[in-house]
């Protein structure tokens, strides 16, 4: 792999970009097919095609159109969300080990999710013990997103120093906050949530189980917003890679752009967490791989992140629901299992 | 005449329920049960394969064009009750820490598994395409719409004795065997009553989730605890804080409280943590331990709403609590 | 270093800490599901009193308080060791993956196997040691750059947490019990639990307190330490292993309890000013105080139920830490 990337880097920029472009396109087209073809029940590709065209049996229709297609599309989207969010945060904190979970964004969303179920239980009418659940589920994405944003803002506010945002401080503050939120979430779940332990646990694992078209609709506006935000940030980001003084001398308002980058990253991560729960490791790994393949050009990195993030999420999800059927391993666990050896390899090569 | 009989039976059964605990919930049950008993009768009075209307514990109405013959079970109740009516379920979720429940017999091993009850595999369910899904409400509230897109679903509480009786009757309607369901319920209650008549009472019991340092004890309304109460035993868990609501099922009891409670009999539910009670500091001081009155019971004590399970629970209770009484034959009641 | 007039007199600090610990210990003996009067306590200690009173005090509250004190001291010491040896003020058992890995070991074993309950401490110990070792391997040998240790530890913690969460999804009916354990608690821990871990807590603690001089030297620059004749690599490894053992052993009995190993050394450092030879013992004492206080609160705040102590240490420790991160003078990290 290293030999290949070295060869890749030797090629002229345009050629490399072209190769990567086709690679990215290939991934984007191939991955959904993976998600549609494989799963807990076996379908032939003819059946998948028939399902897509609306000509299959009711079982095939259900599996393809109701279960696998929305799930695959959501997988693509959240993969993009987490990958881009991790990429932005790594650039922002100049820390190759940064990502949304580490900075407490996922923790904030998780705590709010548990709180939503607990509050739902409290405010439900005495007669209907499950009245709280629809309340919790309806508001869960929005509330979780707000929780993630709040955590990001807290980390941001606490990391501000006289000169501006300190990347190292950001990482450390995030780690402390993440630890606290995780402890509170587990404690809250253990103490108040015993009636719904498995429900909340499923959400906390970051899983695409049971995701539908409604989830996709809720998510897409944020995807659009986030992508636009990233495109706007591309030029300031390149400037941010320089030393602070150099960047300022270029006329860059460092603090403002750092804040914007943080908000965009937090929005993308928190909105994804709000829909499927916290999924780690995609935001950690994909930016690394993108940097390796794409070199220093930020636009190419951005495109690779998008493609690879989408791919990794769908591959992880497909593996998770196929290998141990009828059980499902959540996306986060599979991506962690896939990613850890690779991650260790990457780290050991850090100077 | 038959109508009068059924109505009086229904009224008797309802009186039974009212006597135990008061509450708005029970009044609603009374209305619902009389309603569907009447409906069931009306249904039975007509042709055999006529449409079935069911009202589940969400208050939702489910219409079937004909009685169900291929039920799926999310939570063991569905399989249990199907077996009680001689119908083989077409899909089942896991039972506690095992796969298929052993107490339902070896046939269950052939039934395809849907995975855990809180995350049933929807693709498998779709392929199997049952005509009715019996679901446990508190785990399927989240994914109800997805399941209902595959097959009609009845969501059942399955926590208290009333829940169990109601659920069995509902299943009877679903299978077009309302009369048989009623008989099953009546026989069970009769057996319970006769056992209660023989029970001297005056003992305290506790059902603990594990014998370890932080045991979870069940409230009085939990089905197995409720059965013990009916047998004139005092359940140490106490009344639930929110009688109208079925959850929480119990609470973490501190060991000091357990010691103060000092139940005469302790039932331990299965756990992966073997001999967890070896870690419990007050264990040697409990009189139940000193008198050898600690019994490890099976998973069916935790998911006991089905007719076979609750009958087995009564068998266990008879055998463990009243060893001198004539052993009742352990057939389906 | 100047003498006498600028040196803080350390004795009042020690005395105050010990006094507070003693007071908390006493409160812990008196409080529980029922409030025990001091007279009853006295009679119980003399061997009289009803069986409930005697068991409550002698079998439940006494070992529990001792475990809180000892465990907290071990965590505080472990934190101080990690911070001193890696010269990183944010190293701690929680942030170096030890606690998360130990917890995953227990959860994983209890989900996929049926271990005898008495094996759990050993399993936890192995898990914690593996996690800590993984962190330090990732961070790079030899130099152990401070930032890299924390960053690697964060990654290992994230990994273990992800695996734990995933495992809980297939735990079935065992999940509720495991979640409760994961929240961290001292509820129901008696003499058996104390005996199971006492050796793993006391021996490293004593060893570390005796080895104060090498520890002090290690906190200096590497070249300086080498010049003073210290085999830096070996001593560093030894101290870290001792710290890992203490932290992982405690997890086996109480579940994950974080932030004490991080906060106690920080408070200690503020109190001792310049006299670094007192840093380690004071960290241990403060750690014991903090866990004892958290446990006492856990018992009373949600009476008659008990809050998980992990929640309280997080609630107390995290804001304090964030405040410290903000107000610190620039040190080696941040």
Describe the protein's topology:
The complex is a heterotrimer of chains A (351), B (333) and C (334).
Chain A (H helix, E strand, L loop, with lengths): L1 H9 L2 H25 L7 H9 L4 H36 L11 H19 L8 H28 L7 H26 L4 H8 L8 H28 L3 H6 L4 H23 L5 H13 L3 H26 L7 H18 L3
Chain B lengths: L1 H19 L3 H21 L7 E4 L5 E4 L6 E4 L2 H8 L6 E2 L29 H7 L3 E5 H4 L3 H5 L4 E4 L4 H15 L2 H21 L5 E5 L7 E3 L4 H8 L3 E2 L14 E3 L2 H7 L3 E4 L18 H4 L3 E3 L10 H15 L12
Chain C lengths: L9 H21 L7 H8 L5 H35 L12 H15 L7 H20 L6 H24 L5 H8 L8 H20 L1 H7 L3 H6 L4 H23 L5 H13 L6 H23 L7 H19 L7
Please give the share of residues in helix of chain C. over 70%
Described by the principal axes of the CA atoms, the overall outline of chain C is globular
Query: What is the number of helical segments of chain B per DSSP (H or I, 4+ residues)?
Result: 12
CATH class of chain C: Mainly Alpha
Low-pLDDT residue intervals, each spanning 5 or more residues of chain C: 1-6, 329-334
Task: Give the total of beta strands of chain C.
Answer: 0
In round numbers, the mean pLDDT of chain C is 84
Distance between the termini of chain B: 26 Å
Beta content of chain B comes to: 5-15%
Order of helices and strands of chain C: HHHHHHHHHHHHHH
Main sheet overview of chain C: none
* Shape annotation of chain B: globular
Low-confidence stretches of chain B: 329-333
Task: Count the beta strands of chain B.
Answer: 12
CATH topology of chain C: ABC transporter involved in vitamin B12 uptake, BtuC
Largest interface: A-C, 50 and 50 residues
Helical content of chain B, roughly?
40-55%
CATH architectural category of chain C: Orthogonal Bundle
CATH architecture of the largest domain in chain B: 3-Layer(aba) Sandwich
Identify the CATH class of the largest domain in chain B. Answer: Alpha Beta
Specify Rg of chain C, calculated over alpha carbons.
Answer: 20 Å
